[in-house]
Amino acid sequence: MVKSGKTGGIEPVLFSTANSVVMLLLVIITLYPFMNTIAVSFNDGMDSIRGGIYLWPRVWTLQNYKAIFISGTVYHAFLVSVARTLLSTALNIFLTTMLAYALSRKEYIYRKPITLIFVLTMYFHAGLIPGYFLIKGLGLLNSFWVYILPSMISAFNLIVIRTYMGTLPDSLVESAKMDGAGDFRIFLQIIFPLCKPVLATIALFVAVGSWNTWFDTFLYASSQPQLSTLQYELMKLLASTLNSNSDPSLINGAGMTKDTASGMVTPISIRAAITIVAAVPILFVYPFLQKYFVVGLNVGSVKE
């Protein structure tokens, strides 16, 4: 009995220690690529070519970031990206949730065929060229609204939100109707607040997608510099860096000069700086939505 008691006391300690070690290793493996990218972004470009940079810059410099922000277009593109992300996220969440509420009501007789139409759009797509002519026919070329209108409704988000609404008790809607509330008031004051976990998750997906995309700018608004987004500007800068046929330690496209070795940037260093500039804004948003993220991912897993 004594030996059993001692063994029972040791096993939890061993398990806790092993678990802590494994979790620590996972944290290190997860964080290392990002920390290494930060270190390279603050390291001198010529020195980065030598390699051997891990978690701390060997030769500190801000030249990589100066190469990115030396042009005023990056600041304007940042504002365009912020406006695009905020508007796209707000409209997508509100309109998709409103549509999901209508399709979640059993008394709506056309909810199944309409849902089927939206589901089919997830499997079949007309393609790039028909999509371009559609945007052109709608008069959205070289317009800021080309970033907003095509993304106002998402079929995947619609299915996720509708599934979550199916877990809500029907008695909430029935009691509200008995009190004289209309569908729009029920949606705004009862259903919408109760969907906060799934909406926070969807908002994160939409915001990240809107922030990171640059291809629609390339297709529909590349001829309008005032509509350029941050990701598109960073993509152009990265492309000019990688495709430079001049001295590989000198990036003229970024506005650099070959005065001193410390003033030079390389594809490795500029790529790291671009990655950090593009990722930091989303990193500031994620902590505010993290508490809803797990709940939103488990949407529809529990049925009443």
Short account of what is shown:
The chain is mostly helical. The chain has helices spanning 2-41, 45-49, 63-69, 73-104, 111-123, 128-137, 155-165, 170-178, 183-194, 196-212, 215-220, 230-242, 267-297.
Task: Tell me about this structure.
By secondary structure, the chain is mainly alpha-helical. It folds into 2 domains: 2-70 and 244-297, no CATH class; 73-220, MetI-like (MetI-like fold). The chain is built from 13 helices and no strands. It has helices at residues 2-41, 45-49, 63-69, 73-104, 111-123, 128-137, 155-165, 170-178, 183-194, 196-212, 215-220, 230-242, 267-297. The chain is flat and about 70 Å long. The model is unreliable at 245-262 and 300-304 (pLDDT under 50). It comes from Paenibacillus sedimenti.
Please tag this protein with its features.
304 residues, mainly alpha, MetI-like fold, 2 domains
- Low-confidence stretches are 245-262, 300-304
What Rg is obtained from the alpha carbons, in whole angstroms?
26 Å
Number of domains: 2
Query: N-to-C terminal Cα separation, in Å?
Result: 47 Å
| Beta-strand share of residues | under 5%
Count of helical stretches: 13
Please provide the count of β strands. Answer: 0
- The CATH superfamily of the largest domain is MetI-like
Spell the H/E element sequence. Answer: HHHHHHHHHHHHH
Largest sheet: none
Oligomer: single chain
CATH class of the largest domain: Mainly Alpha
Mean pLDDT over the full residue set: 82
Shape: flat
CATH fold node name of the largest domain: MetI-like fold
Helix vs. strand class: mainly alpha
CATH architecture term of the largest domain:
Orthogonal Bundle
Query: What is the helical fraction, as a range of percent?
Result: 55-70%
